[in-house]
Amino acid sequence: MTDATDWLRVVAAAVFDDAGRVLLARRPAHLHQGGLWEFPGGKVEPGESLEQALARELEEELGILPRRSRPLIRIRHAYPDRRVELDVWRVDAFSGEPHGREGQPVEWVAPEELPEREFPAANRPIVNAVRLPDRYLVTGEPAGDPRRFLARLDQALTGGVRLVQLRAKGLPEAEYLRLAGQAIECCRQHGARLLLNGPPGWVERVGADGVHLDSRRLASLGQRPLDSRYWVAASCHDARELARAEAIGCDFAVLSPVLPTASHPGAPTLGWGGFAELADAARIPVYALGGVGPADIPRAHGHYAQGIAAIRALWEPVSARS
Ligand SMILES: Nc1nc2c([nH]c(=O)n2[C@@H]2O[C@H](COP(=O)(O)OP(=O)(O)OP(=O)(O)O)[C@@H](O)[C@H]2O)c(=O)[nH]1
Ligand SMILES: [Mg+2]
After folding, report:
1. Which BP terms does GO give this entry (predicted)?
2. Which ranges in the chain are annotated with CATH 3.20.20.70?
3. ipTM
């Protein structure tokens, strides 16, 4: 028996196919959390590295060998009868043909359909991590002709951005809402999601995909402002704000500043070490923001981040990049 005070170390995998679907397995009815869907995986054995445990479990349960994998999220969850530390990896290439080697049903599922499945309680943040991309664009302030702003947005989306926060603190309400409508249309054309950095009530009015709460709104809310069909994200700067974002049921957070930025010279920064400590302890996916760009994505993944969030590094016109 496991000592009740111990954390049971588990590795699990979000295995993706070339069509972007993820592989689920159904837990046998007699096991812990039986009958629910899960990401294939199992207990780490003594002396095993996480990568070794991942390769062994995927071979035992699915008959595949991971060829390209990276950390996705680490979540600790206390069930009434056991406490698990789930190290979830994203597997983007593998050899072999996956099948339920232990007789368990397996199924390829599109990420957007995951919310309809029933998972163990620990899996809510994992499902969000699977559904979220590795970069989150925060728009620069619109200035002048909105057509220039929309052209830039289109350029970022063409470059692969799939999640956008419309941040335009300087615009009056009517102009913000008009721009939001146009930005949503632009995002739709690329299959991307748009979150409003504004009052949650605006989201349904313009048909956005969710809300991004700044620190002030996060502090003022006692509960999640929108239902689970929408994304709810929050800007955090320390453990207290992250705890608040989790407590009100946010889907993910952005934690900053990781590194010094041109917009806040001399401001104290977390550094990657400080970031990793907070992101690891968080129970929701966390993006790294502040002085980081797409080139930092692998490093972010090595520090418990979902990926990077950026204004400058994702928003500059391509021609202006060196
Ligand atoms: N594999 C997997 N386990 C999960 C998930 N979510 C979750 O809470 N768990 C919990 O993590 C633990 C995983 O153990 P497991 O039963 O898969 O272990 P295993 O493959 O080594 O099984 P075995 O001990 O029967 O050989 C269980 O307590 C399970 O409830 C998930 O998505 N995937
Ligand atoms: Mg298992």
Report:
1. DNA repair; DNA replication; thiamine biosynthetic process
2. 135-320
3. 0.96
